[in-house]
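Structure ticket #2291
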Amino acid sequence: MNIQAGKEENELMKFMFGLLLGLGLGVAIGLIIAPQSGEETRTILNEQGQGILLRSGALSDQLRSRANEAIERTGSLCPHQK
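Resolution: structure written out below.
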């Protein structure tokens, strides 16, 4: 093995060590300072998801109603359409 290949391998090992160390520290700090447990977080996310579904359904109904009104108005302007 030549000197250049040894340096590159050493640099790669340093990078991988730093990456794994950073990942480990990030996970540990995240677990320590987490505002609530995983179960509580899942409950909150589930509730927020349900709220988004309800709002999107209402928005979809409004858009459908507006589209139907626009179709009716254009149909009265252009009676030759089938």
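Closing remark: The chain has two domains: 1-34, 37-82.
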